[in-house]
Amino acid sequence: MKRLTPEIEQSAYRLGEALRSSHEVQAYRQVSQEVAADRQAGQWSAELESTYARLLQRQAAGEIIPLHEIEAFYRLEHQASAHPLLLKQSRALESLKDLFTETHALLSDELEINLREIIG
To answer: Residues 23-57: pLDDT tens digits?
Structure first.
């Protein structure tokens, strides 16, 4: 792997620090801690995440997921999305995604390269 110059490494570190201290990252971290501390929200979040991962893995392996399992997943997702903390977390995640999208665009424009092509 190619070693970065000290200047690029330092700039990347400063960018990481700026992102870490941003309102969006702080808000997402805070609400994620709240979700983890709330029994119901934490349970739904974990169940939703594990169910999604299992369905995705099975689908990637070529399995056709039965409709009743897909519907059960969407019922769980709907139920979970009604929880105030999970709704707050979802909104915070969208803001976080917007921040990273904007950061990507600014870096690509400033460096005059398409970072998506480099990342693959």
So the answer is: 999 999 999 999 999 999 999 999 999 999 999 99
Q: Is residue 47 exposed (0-12), middle (13-18) or buried (19+ Cβ within 10 Å)?
A: middle
CB burial of 76-86 (b: ≥16 within 10 Å; e: otherwise) equals eeeebeebebb
Q: Tell me how far apart the alpha carbons of residues 112 and 114 are, in angstroms, rounded to a whole number.
A: 7
User: Cβ distance 47 to 76 under 8 Å?
Assistant: yes
Token pair recorded at residue 80: 């979970």
Distances (CA, A) of 58 to 52, 62, 64, 112: 10, 7, 8, 40
Q: Is the pTM of this model over 0.85?
A: no
Q: How many Å apart are CA 115 and CA 108, to the nearest integer?
A: 6
